[in-house]
């Protein structure tokens, strides 16, 4: 963003879209001429041209997976724009969107048209996610939005994306990048790690699970015995996932097993997140906290404003109740200021 005050860049961008999105109508966010020039200038001409297909990825691509739906569409558009704006080579970003098709939700064709109209040069594909395949496994949550089947689509990335895609960055739709996402993409994933994400070991890990979990001799501490490190909380809104290891380890089925257990006997408290905790906590490859400045949506009851955590910022995450577009509609946006230094030590506003 070109302004120290992030809200001066974010909120006008989000305002391009109406609260109830009518796809194909109304004002559209368009690629700027400057953004198209950046693609030409920053993608090195000495690099051999990559022949791209929607099914077979070329070398050097950064695969970014996100979900798409009507309510979060403004957030998705802002996230896409921020990722392109700060990418060293925007043309190398390949977006792989997951969307439900059918019912009252906008169809894949409508979403495709909306994306193409706003970002004509965007490299992307949309994959249909069958909501009925997961509905029976979803437990009640503190927020209705977290019970939406699409919130669980991240569990099925390895099944939905082409098998030739080796890894993907998964991002929630309520994020903004202020750094080159390729730096996150280049996170080293050792053979023992399936997921890389920022960890938060200062959080009380035990509180994410119920007393029934910890008192069960077949669960509790036994689940985490033998892990590479002590288990810590991590947020699944920003992850680098080794899709080949996910497939070979049958993690899709293993996540479903934990969800089935949760339906029978409530063992955890955090909605769609905890199925990842018993599987990966203590095995996650650690990513710098700058890649998930989370919690900006405030608490889940009041949705009050929260400032950024201390430290450098590469990606901001409005996890929590207060999404920026909802705050705009309510006339109560939260001010947010971010400062970061580039590689030369110069202040970037």
List the helices and strands and how they pair.
Elements lengths: L5 H9 L18 H10 L19 E6 L5 H14 L6 E8 L7 H11 L4 E7 L27 H4 L6 E5 L3 E3 L4 H4 L9 E3 L1 E2 L10 H5 L17 E2 L3 E5 H6 L2 H14 L11 H5 L4 E2 L28 E3 L6 H7 L9 E2 L5 E2 L1
Family: Belongs to the glycosyltransferase 8 family.
Pfam family, one: Glyco_transf_8
InterPro entries: Glyco_trans_8, Glycosyltrans_8_dom-fam, Nucleotide-diphossugar_trans
Can you describe what's shown?
26% of the residues lie in helices and 14% in strands. With 349 residues, it is α/β, with parallel strands linked by helices. The protein has one domain: Spore Coat Polysaccharide Biosynthesis Protein SpsA, Chain A (Alpha-Beta Complex), CATH 3.90.550. A seven-stranded mixed sheet has the order 3-2-1-4-9-6-10. A two-stranded antiparallel ribbon has the order 5-11. α3 links the parallel β1 and β2. The protein is globular. The termini are close together. The N terminus and C terminus are likely disordered. Its EC number is 2.4.1.-. It is an enzyme of class 2 (transferase). Belongs to the glycosyltransferase 8 family.
CATH domain topology: Spore Coat Polysaccharide Biosynthesis Protein SpsA, Chain A
Q: What is the fourth-level CATH superfamily?
A: Spore Coat Polysaccharide Biosynthesis Protein SpsA, Chain A
* CATH architecture heading: Alpha-Beta Complex
Specify the structural class.
alpha/beta
CATH structural class: Alpha Beta
Low-pLDDT sequence parts: 1-11, 16-28, 37-56, 344-349
